[in-house]
Amino acid sequence: MSSSPGRAPLAPGFANGGVSHWYRAAGRPEPGPRLPGPRTADVCVVGAGYTGLWTAYYLKRARPDLRIVVLEREFAGFGASGRNGGWVLGEIAGSRERYAARHGRPAAIALQHAMFRAVDEVVRVAGAEDVDAGLVKGGVLHVARNAAQRARLAALVEEAREWGWSDEDLVPLPAAERDERLRVEGATGAAWSPHAARVQPAALVRGLAAAVRRLGVQIYERTPVVRIDPRRPDGAAAAVTPFGTVAAEYVLRATEGFTAALPGHRRDWLPMNSSMIVTTPLPARAWKEIGWERRELLGDMAHYYMYAQRTADDRIAFGGRGRPYRYGSR
Hints:
Number of strands: 15
CATH superfamily of the largest domain: FAD/NAD(P)-binding domain
Oligomer: single chain
Radius of gyration: 21 Å
Strand order of the largest sheet: 5-6-4-13-14-15-12
């Protein structure tokens, strides 16, 4: 997909000018102004994806007097935040055992329950800030399609019970209820959790950026950070760009998958790939056969797992780990 006529070019070497299906649907935004020169701030956030924008949002809500600057290489939501599977999922990332080994088992369980609440918080903020992102809290349906997957599904439920998930957090479904929700060919088992919501991710991140700007946060786009300096003799840290340096008491790195491009951080972060395909909008007769009226997220128990959603415009968006990391690649 080539860049749209009249659009500002993206970084050299970037081939996919449309960024993602989500931006094709919503329209790729024009980047905002660059950093006009040196600035001072209380907090400088590097990266205007979900990590950076949610951080700026809650800091500004808690302390309206804070001077917050966000720096972004392309435009807010350009990275993974605008091209993911569209899942707001109440699960912790990584190993429960590792969290428990470092912080204790009660803390790991408390973190999990905080993640449950985070799904409702995303829905709440979107409503409060008038962000139309197609959010529907239909939960997530995990489906098994063979004996091996069914065994993994049973183990998933058993392990969840050991880590504080109740029947209200994750429940196996009998075949009739599974098929009443969503008919998956060859399904042999399913479990459902309410702690998940469908979202149009590009619409959410763009709406969040607008909310942050309304609060008084300065977002400078088309402003790559080439270096982050630790505290200098004057007590300030700094984010260095080609257009000036932002000096701040705190510089927060929210670069996620782009972290390796920063000097000194090449081996700190390993970017991974997922691939997605999206259907054309399906007619009403197809949905009558499939079901999916409650807009649950859909996942399976394969090793190369699949994730899917019914989009707001009645497509099916599928993704999965079918595109592995290539050693030494860009």
